[in-house]
Write a structure and sequence with these properties.
The chain is built from 6 helices and 12 strands. The chain is α+β, with helices and mostly antiparallel strands and 174 residues long. The strands form 6 sheets. It has a two-stranded antiparallel ribbon. It is globular and about 65 Å long.
Length: 174
C-alpha cells in the first residue's frame, strides 16, 4: 500500500524512479516501465478474438474492439462529431474549438494547443529524423512524409482521376 501511494505521488512530483535499461526512458511507476518494456520485447499478450490483432495492454485491446463494433461513444457538444476514444474527442476540442495555446517552443517561441504538436515542431530545431524508409534508408522528420515517400517504392497510387483512372500518390497532383 505504501508503494502504491509512492507511485501515485509521482504523478504530482514528476519524479521518475524506474529507468528502461534498453532506451533509458524513465517512468514514475514500475507498472509503466513493465508495459514500456513490451515495446522492446515485442510481447503482446492481449489478442482480439475477432481478428487476432495483438496489443501490449488490455486498454489498447478494449479501444481496438470499437473498430469491430463501430461504436463512437464520445460526442462533441459543439459540432456533434463523435469519436471512439475520449482522448480523440479531447484532441478534437482543443484543435477546433479553442484558441488557447499552452505549449510554447523554447527555441523560437511558437505556441501550440497540443503537446504532441509542440513535440513534432521541435524536430525542426533538433534535425532528428526518426522515420526511416526500409527500402532506401532515407530519413524523415514526419511519419506522413515517409508514408508518401514509401509509395515511390511500392508503386501505390491511392488517388485516382475520375475521368481516366490514372493514379497519383497525392491528391494535390490530380
Amino acid at each position: 500500500r505504501a508503494d502504491s501511494l509512492r507511485e501515485h505521488m509521482v504523478l504530482h512530483t514528476g519524479e521518475s524512479r524506474y529507468k528502461c535499461h534498453v532506451c533509458g526512458k524513465a517512468f514514475g511507476g514500475s507498472s509503466n516501465l513493465k508495459l514500456h518494456l513490451r515495446h522492446h520485447s515485442g510481447e503482446k499478450p492481449f489478442a482480439c478474438d475477432i481478428c487476432n490483432a495483438a496489443f501490449i495492454c488490455k486498454a489498447q485491446l478494449l479501444n481496438h474492439n470499437l473498430v469491430h463494433t463501430g461504436e463512437r461513444p464520445y460526442k462533441c457538444d459543439i459540432c456533434g462529431n463523435s469519436y471512439k476514444l475520449k482522448v480523440e474527442l479531447k484532441t478534437h476540442n482543443i484543435r477546433l474549438h479553442t484558441s488557447e495555446k499552452l505549449f510554447n517552443c523554447d527555441k523560437c517561441g511558437k505556441r501550440f494547443s497540443l503537446k504532441e504538436q509542440l513535440k513534432t515542431h521541435q524536430r525542426i530545431h533538433t534535425g532528428v529524423k526518426r522515420y526511416v524508409c526500409e527500402f532506401c534508408q532515407r530519413a524523415f522528420m514526419h511519419q506522413g512524409n515517409l508514408r508518401v515517400h514509401r509509395m515511390l517504392h511500392t508503386g501505390e497510387r491511392p488517388h485516382k482521376c475520375d475521368i481516366c483512372d490514372k493514379g497519383f500518390i497525392e491528391a494535390a497532383a490530380l
